[in-house]
Design brief:
It contains 30 helices and 13 strands. Helix 24 packs parallel to helix 26. Strands 1, 2, 3, 4, 5, 6, 7, 8, 9, 10 and 13 form an eleven-stranded mixed β-sheet that branches. The chain is α/β, with parallel strands linked by helices. The longest helix is centred in the N-terminal third of the chain and has 33 residues. The two termini are 53 Å apart. It is a multi-pass membrane protein.
């Protein structure tokens, strides 16, 4: 009796959910299984078919799961790369149509085989038609995102997800009863008008609000949340499912948010709380005993899994024939379009909960269980196949010969043209007189190599009254630091232009000055801000990474850069950004001079042929440098990447790292390897951050 009273308490239910979210995913990730699998399993164990500690019908679970479902679709809309879609729009639409229609037909056939109604069969087909880019971090790490087959598949996501949700809205409307041709036309008309209003209206309103609100991130965060729930409520008002509104809201504010800090905070809140609650609730609905007892459910699951895998393969094969892709490109497209997570799970739950006046569900428990199994199979199979075949995709070698940082670090042809016409400018924010010498020396070495100039920058905290004595004192201290910076720069015979800026926000002051000076690089010192506060509100480094228009080099220099003789560069992929880090190390080695070692830690299971191919490509990149720099390659087979890099770096003066962030269906994941290296490396460090990384 006491146990029942406890489990009925909303506070107890919320506490149990938080405990599960906090403890279960890390355990499963250590076992190399997706954390969401652990959440589903926890739901099964804690639900009414297990320990009965959580009830999917409780108000707490219902509310959090509902928000999680909306958040999942909102994030799915946010994570669709509209820029990639625009680059290959026509081919993305064609492949999107193929990978939508073929699985849709396969699902309809599967539904009819098991005597489901036409409406339910079409709904089952739509569940197979979408896909989640679960393996995107893999192609990003391998540096093949720019390959056309990959960009086409990424672009196709917008078509498949939108199409699947529109079919869901129609099927749920039909299932509700009182269906006629007029009601269908009314539903489609309302859906069209609503979609236009959300996509264009929210986009316009968001841009206007962000323009007027400036840097007020808290208000911007609330505006985005309001947009999400307004779109969801609006969808309900016109009689369609609210997850359709959430997805469209994500698409609408996609351009508004870009890669801003607000976007990370939106995804962070969703990925640590609401989306995990949704997965736990999905686990609560799974009835394992009933699933095992019913032979037809097992056959249904098998047919659905085979139909999905086969139909996605057929779609990729047809795309290969149409656009003359090679086998590796076809298999990569197939594997990228396999995982069924975000839209599939959200739509499945909606369909399962849709009950007509006669009390009949749109899909039964058997389909729900089958989709859960489908999600688990494809979430594991898709990334494995991607990792196997994406390594064979071609890497463009354009510009490998370049030894100018300005060329490597241009983001577009226009930016390249601008930077080639401008003087190479290095912004150096200075605050601590104890460490500023090494920062200025690093900037001066790079500026001298590029025939550029150094701009030492002192940020002074603004006051309400500009005649405040404290402000005057701070300005005098800034001038003293800048005088020292000028003397250090002149030792290296480079042009120096000291600058003082009065600003409320140090990070934005740095970014704004770098934009005003059309800087090519920001060299800044280390920030010790870590932990939850930095994760929620960001450190100065995080803010500069997000807001800067140019590359940022964050340094922890233990000795003068002029004494550096051995530089290690961990190389995990062959992206343009990684090769830029290699060039950075080679240029720094050229001015000292020093030796560069490119370290690649390969998984023990990686086939020798792939290791040889990677080594060959890396050797080619290193050899194409026109600089007279001794560059060696070291390949080590080990599963613990961070441990190997930390061990090998002990013999080096400097490690050049990249700030790597991978986007996943559940939000943002920051490279744990980089985090561990920053904490444990004993040598000097340069951490390179891409613009808006």
């Amino acid at each position: 009796m006491t146990l029942n009273l406890l489990t009925d308490s909303p506070l107890i239910a919320f506490t149990i959910l938080l405990t599960v979210i906090f403890t279960v995913p890390p355990i499963f990730e250590r076992l190399r299984l997706p954390g969401l699998v652990g959440l589903l399993l926890a739901g099964i164990i804690l639900g009414q078919n297990g320990l009965k500690l959580l009830d999917s019908e409780s108000e707490t679970v219902n509310l959090l799961s509902d928000i999680g479902k909306l958040y999942l679709m909102f994030v799915a809309g946010l994570e669709i790369d509209l820029e990639q879609f625009r680059k290959t729009k026509n081919r993305s639409i064609v492949f999107g149509s193929l990978t939508f229609l073929v699985p849709l037909i396969a699902g309809i056939i599967a539904g009819r085989l098991f005597s489901f109604s036409w409406n339910s069969s079409v709904l089952i087909g739509s569940l197979l038609a979408s896909h989640t880019l679960l393996a995107y971090p893999i192609v990003s790490r391998l540096g093949v995102v720019a390959n056309e087959a990959v960009t086409v598949t990424i672009g196709a996501t917008i078509f498949t997800d939108t199409g699947a949700l529109l079919v869901l809205a129609i099927c749920v409307g039909i299932h509700g009863g009182n269906f006629s041709a007029l009601s269908l036309a009314t539903l489609l008309g309302g859906l069209t008008i609503y979609s236009v209003v959300v996509l264009f209206g929210f986009d316009w309103a968001g841009k206007e609000f962000f323009r007027r609100s400036g840097d007020e991130q808290s208000n911007q965060f609330l505006f985005i949340l309001l947009a999400l729930f307004l779109a969801s409520v609006g969808a309900q008002i016109i009689g369609i499912e609210k997850i359709v509104g959430a997805f469209l809201a994500g698409l609408a504010v996609n351009d508004v948010l870009g890669r801003s800090p607000v976007k990370e905070k939106i995804e962070f809140i969703g990925s640590v709380l609401f989306i995990p609650c949704f997965f736990v609730d999905m686990g609560l609905l799974i009835n394992i005993p009933a699933f095992i007892k019913t032979l037809s459910s097992i056959w249904l699951t098998l047919v659905i899994v085979v139909a999905l895998i086969g139909s996605k393969f057929i779609a990729a094969f047809l795309a290969k024939l149409l656009y003359r892709y090679n086998t590796a490109e076809m298999l990569t497209m197939w594997s990228l379009s396999l995982p069924q997570v975000a839209a599939t799970l959200a739509a499945t739950l909606v369909a399962y909960q849709a009950v007509n006046p006669a009390g009949e569900r749109l899909i039964n428990e058997g389909v729900l269980n089958s989709v859960i199994v489908l999600m688990l199979v494809t979430a594991i199979l898709g990334p494995i196949i991607t990792a196997r075949f994406a390594t064979f995709l071609q890497l463009s070698s354009t510009g490998f010969e370049t030894d100018k940082l300005t060329t490597w670090w241009g983001n577009s042809e226009d930016q390249l043209a601008d930077k080639n016409d401008e003087l190479f400018t290095v912004i150096v924010p200075i605050y601590n007189p104890q460490t500023q010498r090494y920062l200025i020396e690093m900037a001066a070495l790079l500026a001298r190599h590029e025939s550029g100039k150094v701009v030492p920058l002192a940020i002074t905290k603004a006051h309400v009254n500009m005649d405040n004595p404290e402000l005057a004192t701070a300005l005098d201290q800034s001038k003293q630091r800048l005088d020292l910076a000028r003397k250090i720069s002149q030792e290296f015979e480079v042009e120096v232009s000291p600058a003082i800026r009065i600003d409320d926000d140090a990070a934005l002051g740095i970014s704004r000055t770098s934009r005003e000076q059309n800087a090519s690089l920001v060299v800044m010192g280390w920030s010790r801000t870590t932990g939850l506060r930095a994760r929620l509100f960001g450190s100065v480094i995080d803010s500069v990474f997000w807001s800067s228009h140019c590359q940022v080099a964050v340094t922890r220099l233990l000795s003068s850069p002029t004494t550096i003789r051995r530089i290690i560069v961990p190389v995990g992929d062959l992206t343009r950004q990684t090769i830029g880090a290699v060039r950075f190390a080679q240029i720094l080695a050229d001015v000292n001079p020093a030796e560069v070692v490119l370290l690649h830690v390969s998984d023990r299971k990686t086939p020798p042929t792939l290791v040889e191919k990677f080594t060959s490509q890396l050797s080619d990149i290193a050899a194409k440098s026109q600089l007279q720099v001794n560059t060696n390659i070291q390949i080590i087979k080990d599963n613990d990447i961070a441990r190997v890099i930390i061990r090998e770096s002990q013999a080096f003066d400097l490690a050049v790292l990249r700030s790597v962030r991978y986007r996943t269906a559940g939000g943002l994941a920051i490279s744990q390897v980089t985090t561990q290296l920053l904490q444990e490396l004993k040598c000097s460090i340069v951490l390179l951050g891409e613009p808006n990384s």
